[in-house]
Amino acid sequence: MGSQSYGSDANSASRNWGPNCYCGRATSIIKSWTNDNPGRRFIRCGVHGFVNWADEDKPYGWQKVSLLEARDEIRQLKDEMKVFKESVQATNEQGLTDMNSVLVNKDEQEKYQLENEVKACNEREKLLRQFIVLSWGSFILVIAMILAMGKK
Ligand SMILES: [Zn+2]
């Protein structure tokens, strides 16, 4: 039971550990994708690199050919995905800068509108003051005229 649960743990791990290297370090099992050995697993040490093949048989025949074809197709797809991702990223960045310039313009517009409103407010206040002064002035003028007429 104990060994079984250990086995399932090892399977669920994302990394495949190989037997220890001759230097004593832990190794990992990696798939080779070279032209000579497509899909053939090998033991790799973090220090020494290639240690030994994990799969004894070399790939050959139609299996080797189809593995190489699959490898090239995957590489091509990866390249296409990369180009696609880059273009999406570029589009997003372009979109962001557009948004920013719109926001800046909106800010500028609001500022301009606010300034205009403040100016208009000041104008109205000035007019109102002038109107009050004028009406007071004319009122006093009328009173003075009435007083002058009464004196006669
Ligand atoms: Zn080593």
From TrEMBL:
Keywords: Coiled coil, Membrane, Transmembrane, Transmembrane helix
Coiled coil stretches, renumbered: 67-124
InterPro entries, alphabetized: DUF7900
Protein name: DUF7900 domain-containing protein
Transmembrane segments: 131-150
Family annotation (Pfam families): DUF7900
Domain DUF7900, chain residue ranges per copy: 58-128
Keyword Thylakoid on entry: no
Keyword set includes Membrane: yes
